[in-house]
Design a protein that fits this description.
Distance between the termini: 63 Å
CATH superfamily of the largest domain: Glutaconate Coenzyme A-transferase
CATH class of the largest domain: Alpha Beta
Largest sheet: 10 strands, mixed
CATH architecture of the largest domain: 3-Layer(aba) Sandwich
Structural class: alpha/beta
CATH topology of the largest domain: Glutaconate Coenzyme A-transferase
Number of helices: 16
Length: about 550
């Protein structure tokens, strides 16, 4: 059957049905104007969609408010800009039961899609085992002649929705990496793909290496400039102009989702514009030109590095973590460091830069699909489009997490954060027993479970450091070191023990007392506890160079915090 070239309205009217399982392919773009049209047509309708979307982000809350989603299969239910935080719309929907949630890690989510795409009854995984996610029906462990094997059930969408940079007139779709979950959902979907594209060209054969979806899997194509907004498009050599993510818009959505008038915002920005042209007119040419210019490398003037001599608790923890990371890179001969988001990301960047200065050939990896990249100045976001051109390899999450980081051919260190952590190093980033929903695993479970070693960096408090995690997102078997603003905990005989303390209180005894006061269990103390070095503003400069607005580090200008 020939691919339809049609409008947003026609694509959704003809191919999205009540009760469908809709898979939203994120790639590096995160969004498609087709989702705006799904909300428009199914607003407050009992459509009963199952939403398969690895990272919901702030705009996922719009789909929840539409009332047309009954279940979500996801990896991350939270905001991404300006920081990675829980979102109250998701929290309330999950707590009330209005939306059922099924939580997975990035790798198992993709492996489930690949099982569906290849017609297999299950996919083998090395993730999830030992976590609370293992209790879900779509996971099992079986004894085989080859040993005990963990399996995940196929994840089958009815329709996959994605934004592609370019299509040809036959309906083949080209997308440049990095690609997050790749194009596997296009092959897993029962009926096929709905795609928005920046541009339709006569022939894609000059770019055949970037064609990810063949025309026979495509139901409809909508030529839709800026169709990924507020996501962006990295052209990667394709015959199309790219544009950066609109972070201001993402932040606007995040703030609106926390207000009582969120539906008014949705009516203005989602339900109101009847066409893409109307939506772009509302954004305005100045805003769109700035996004295109940013994709071309023309960034607005950045603030100067904060010269304050005082340091924040986050800065102190990150500086110490960077030092610990350098030691472990050297001791293990590590090939790569994969960092989580936020403070852990900054510590990893600073630690790897320091390792390079000492002649170690370790590289940075990011689960989106970046290998051996160099983070740009004045941008603390791990998935920034400005980092893409610096990478020596661009690929997808399955290749990064499933092969290069988790496989036996590489020695990898994970540097991550934790919302909740217990004495055995188990980490919870999903939900608090009797409390709120957090965000989910992201790639945390995959890398913490499978990396050769894990270093955790976070600030210490009794609420964060608990005796037992009520939900285990990532088992702590490979957590070796936990670096905090109060000191360093190191794994000894399966339990975290205090080995270093902050110099802030003058001596080791006072430092031990402070660390114990910040811990939710009876913290064991190593017989030879060492004082950590003082951290000055100068020590924090490499971190501040990335995070000049103090998004993750906090602001030191007003003194230590």
């Amino acid at each position: 059957m020939a691919v339809e070239f049609c409008s947003l309205t026609e694509a959704v009217e003809r191919h999205v049905r009540p009760g469908d399982a809709l898979n939203v392919v994120l790639g590096h773009s995160r969004w498609s104007a087709l989702l705006r049209e799904v909300v428009r047509q199914h607003w407050q309708q009992p459509s009963g969609f199952t939403l398969q979307m690895a990272s919901l982000s702030s705009l996922g809350a719009v789909l929840f408010r539409a009332g047309c989603v009954r279940k979500v299969v996801t990896v991350y239910s939270g905001d991404s800009f300006p920081t990675f935080t829980p979102n109250p719309v998701f929290q309330q929907a999950y707590e009330s039961g209005a939306v059922e949630v099924e939580n997975w890690s990035f790798l198992t989510y993709i492996q489930r899609l690949r099982a569906a795409a290849t017609g297999m009854p299950a996919a083998v995984t090395t993730s999830v085992r030992g976590s609370s996610m293992a209790a879900q029906d779509a996971y099992d462990e079986v004894d085989t002649a080859f040993g005990r094997v963990s399996l995940v059930e196929p994840l089958v969408p009815d329709v996959a929705i994605l934004h592609s940079a370019v299509a040809d007139r036959l309906g083949n779709l080209a997308i440049a990496p990095p690609m997050f979950e790749g194009s596997v959902a296009a092959f897993a979907a029962r009926r096929g793909v709905l795609a928005t594209v920046e541009k339709v060209v006569d022939d894609l054969r000059p770019w055949a290496g970037l064609v990810r979806v063949p025309a026979h899997r495509v139901l409809a194509v909508v030529e839709c400039p800026y169709g990924a907004h507020p996501g962006g498009v990295y052209p990667g050599g394709l015959p199309v102009d790219g544009y950066d993510e609109d972070r201001e818009y993402w932040i606007e959505v995040r703030e609106a989702s926390r207000r009582a008038d969120f539906d008014d915002w949705i009516k203005e920005w989602i339900l109101g514009p009847a066409t893409q042209d109307e939506y772009l007119a509302k954004l305005g040419r100045t805003r769109l030109r700035a996004l295109s210019a940013a994709a071309g490398g023309r960034r607005p003037e950045q603030p100067a590095i904060d010269p304050a001599p005082a340091t924040t608790v986050g800065e102190r923890a990150a500086v110490w973590a960077a030092g610990q990371l350098v030691d472990r890179i050297r001791d293990l001969g590590a090939d790569t460091v994969l960092a989580g988001a936020g403070l852990a990301n900054l510590a990893a960047w600073a630690g790897v830069a320091r390792a390079h200065d000492q002649g170690m050939p370790v590289v940075l990896a990011a689960e989106l699909g970046l290998w051996d990249y160099s983070p740009v100045d004045a941008d603390p976001m791990i998935f920034s489009f400005h980092n893409f051109p610096t990478a020596r390899m661009l690929m997808d999450t399955e290749q990064i997490l499933g092969v290069l980081v988790n496989g036996p051919g590489s020695c990898a260190i994970a540097c991550v954060g934790a919302a909740e952590l217990d004495r055995h190093g188990n980490i919870n980033t999903t939900r608090i027993e009797g409390g709120p929903y957090l965000v989910g695993s992201g790639g945390g479970n995959d890398v913490i479970t499978n990396a050769d070693e894990t270093l955790v960096v976070t600030t210490m408090s009794p609420r964060r450091f608990v005796d037992r995690c009520s939900y285990v997102t990532s088992p702590g078997d490979r957590v070796r070191t936990v670096v905090t603003d109060a000191g360093v905990l190191t794994k000894r005989d399966g339990e975290l023990v205090l080995t270093h303390v902050t110099p802030e209180y003058g001596d080791v005894a006072a430092g031990i007392e402070f660390a114990r006061s910040r811990c939710g269990w009876e913290l064991a103390v190593h017989p030879e506890v060492a004082l950590l070095p003082e951290v000055t503003g100068a020590d924090a400069v490499p971190l501040r160079n990335y995070d000049r607005n103090g998004v993750f580090l906090g602001r030191a200008g007003g003194g230590a915090s």
